Amino acid sequence: MDWQGQKLCEQLMMIMLLGFSILGFIAGYSKGSYQMMLLVYAAGVVITTLISVPNWGFYNRHPLKWLDPIEFENSPKPEILVSKKKVTKSVKK
Amino acid sequence: MHSFGYRANALLTFSVTILAIMCTMGSLSDNFNNPTPTSEVQVLNINWFQKQPNGNDEVSLTLNVSANLQSMFTWNTKQARLFYFGPYVSDILSSEGICGIFVSIMVPWSAAEYETPKNNLNQVSLWDGIIPSKEHAKFWMHTTNKYRFTDQGSNLRGKDFNLTLHWHVMPKTGKMFEDKIVMTGYRLPQEYR
């Protein structure tokens, strides 16, 4: 799952759960049945689970573009020496 | 949201939080209900009124009870319990599950026949029951007292007493309600019979 997919997934989950809870509450209250409210919400949770938990294809439409290994070799190296010096100094002390 | 387990965990946590909020709202919605229960009790007959060998007074009553408690039932009501109390008596009635009748008697301090008037309120439970649903919340019945109406002493002759219908309403979620209807103007006979 890519970054965009993760954001989409979290938003979908929250909106769907809240939506089903409101729907369930209205349905239960208007029918005068607590069981109705719980059934509607339970169904909503199952649907939301199926949509937001598995790693579906539509969460992977914005793959990250990694640099090629060759390009990495040619690019300037990170300053490892500086950190090494610091390490050795602290060891001497 | 990067892994299966993390997504499942987030969904579970959030859904249970919302469920708790829904139940709280369901419980709060009971406040919009203004119940107007009614109840009437007639004492049809005093079957016996006697002194037990140990000196306690005991009464057996035949009661004609009618009550309409349907307005107590909401979508969040599981059951109601009822009790009737009498002079030294109590009753319980409830709305969706349990029903009872209490009869309560105020014993005046000035009562001369009390050697030691220790208590100014005595309650005895006479009858109780459970109302499991709204359909059963309107009823009429003809019954003797379910529980013995006994005074710890011989204070019952000529006593005025109240019959009180108490009820506890058990909600599916939230706080249990209780209330009562007091019916006054009952009197026990002067003589044992």
Describe this structure in words.
The complex is a heterodimer of chains A (93) and B (193). Chain A is mainly alpha-helical and 93 residues long. Chain A has one domain (3-74). Helices cover 72% and strands 0% of the residues of chain A. Chain A has helices at 3-31, 34-52, 69-74, 80-92. The longest helix of chain A has 29 residues, at 3-31. The mean pLDDT of chain A is 84. Chain B folds into two domains: 1-32; 36-92 and 103-187. In chain B, strands 3, 5, 6, 9 and 10 form a five-stranded mixed beta sheet that branches. In chain B, strands 1, 2, 7 and 8 form a four-stranded antiparallel beta sheet that branches. In chain B, a hairpin with a 5-residue loop joins strand 9 and strand 10. With 193 residues, chain B is mainly β. The A-B interface holds A 1, 5-7, 9-10, 13-14, 17-18, 21, 24-25, 28-29, 31-34, 37, 41, 45, 48-49, 52-55 and B 1-2, 4, 7-8, 10-11, 14-15, 18-19, 21-22, 25-26, 29, 74-76, 172-173.
What is the succession of H and E elements of chain B?
A: HEEEEEEEEEE
Tell me the count of domains of chain A.
Answer: 1
Contiguous runs where pLDDT drops below 50 for at least 5 residues of chain A: none
Which quaternary structure do these chains form? heterodimer
Organism (chain B): Papaver somniferum (Opium poppy)
Keywords (chain B): Endoplasmic reticulum, Membrane, Signal, Signal-anchor, Transmembrane, Transmembrane helix
GO biological process, one term (chain B): signal peptide processing
Membrane topology (chain B): Single-pass type II membrane protein
